[in-house]
């Protein structure tokens, strides 16, 4: 393998462990993420994640699972967990769970480097290309996501001339290959990359093809049904088919309680209510989001929004 870190990630993602345990243990021992950061990625309390890590280590000891590099023919069966590890390292760099910094560039760069190695190592597989495309497209906006004071600049307000267009072109080309590779239905990373490409290639925020994004989220919800995907799909519906319709979907998801600890749900709900002029309800939703958020840049952004709807 091209780098020891990637070799070790494949080693730790042993199929005798549940996929979530493989990913959590690898992030903790090799990714350098704290138990709290990993818990945040899995939307569970930190004590719950700590217990899962302890159980995973105990299983390794009891079953005498060897930490050894798998043979080439075993790489594919471990690929799903490895992709999740690389993606979660990137996510923690793209939007840090805790602390003053929103972006941790070193983690983004590490994940992109590992993504390139996976594409080189497994050229016949589409999803490594999809993951690399997704990371490149998101990372292309890194210079415009914060202003000079370190405060968040929303996607629709960013200076698109300052985006890394070479990176966008590379990411969009990879996304297209991943979508069409192998004559099979596209996987979740390819679909997410396609969504990111629609955003990145729109010349202005107003020109964003929200109908195409909504359709892609519909496909993603079928192949990778998660509450977070449903939330993103609801926002896309709001942008393509009307705020009220999207708000109904967000409220239905909220009532189910699966994202009760996820600050971006009340934040999204607050934004939709703000756009509808329902400021009292929006203020309540912003306060809910503030009670859950743990990153200081995101906290400042939510506080700014709250001031705007109560003034």
Q: Layout of helices and strands, plus pairs?
A:
Blueprint: H1 4-12, H2 19-29, H3 35-42, H4 46-63, H5 75-94, H6 105-121, H7 126-139, H8 165-180, H9 188-201, H10 210-223, H11 227-241, H12 243-256, H13 264-275, H14 279-292, H15 296-310
Helix pairs in contact: 2-4, 2-5, 3-4, 5-6, 5-7, 6-7, 7-8, 7-9, 8-9, 9-10, 10-11, 11-12, 12-13, 13-14, 14-15
Structure commentary:
This protein has 311 residues and is mainly α. It has a domain at 1-91. The chain contains 15 helices and no strands. α12 packs antiparallel against α13 and α14 (279-292) runs antiparallel to α15 (296-310). It is globular.
What is this structure, in a nutshell?
The chain has a domain at 1-91. The relative contact order is 0.08. Helix content is 68%, strand content 0%.
Descriptors for this entry?
311 residues; mainly alpha; 68% helix; globular
Give the overall form.
Answer: globular
The profile of the biggest β sheet is: none
Report the helical percentage.
55-70%
Number of E strands: 0
Topology order in helix (H) and strand (E) letters: HHHHHHHHHHHHHHH
Measure the end-to-end span: 58 Å
Residue fraction in strands: under 5%
Structure annotation, total helices: 15
* Rg for CA atoms: 20 Å
